[in-house]
Amino acid sequence: MKLHILCIGRRIPTWISEGYREYARRLPPECALNLIEIEPAQRARNLPADQVRAEEGRRLLKAAPKGAELIALDEHGQPWSTQDLAQRLRLWLADGRDRVFLIGGAEGLADDCLKQASAIWSLSALTLPHQLVRILLAEQLYRAWSLIQGHPYHRA
Known about the structure:
The protein has 156 residues and is an alpha/beta fold. It has a single domain, classed as Alpha/beta knot (3-Layer(aba) Sandwich), CATH 3.40.1280.10. It contains 5 helices and 5 strands; from the N terminus they run E-H-E-H-E-H-E-H-E-H.
């Protein structure tokens, strides 16, 4: 199984890239992270936000590996505890199918992404910078894996 993170954004600050890599490298090969950065839609002067979201959504869905389960990250989704995520990760590892986490751009995720996702997950009720989400997601996936393994990283 591979865990794919598809996100809008290319010119990412170094500290974001380093934070993401720190947690991604900790995961074992059986649940390795694959980050795919998608070019943001061009912002024309009067282009409405819903058109930007729709274009970026098309790009995300086009880049998703065929047959993978889609999980959308959205502030209006369901909150999952670390234990919830660990249970899901345990099930995902058992069935072996790839999972794709969709992270929208500054305007959020397109309705098509939300509709095609099997789950909509909220990392927080706060509105988070879309670039920061990749670090939080990688850390939470590593934390869930460490919980499954009985590793001392998770101390709750």
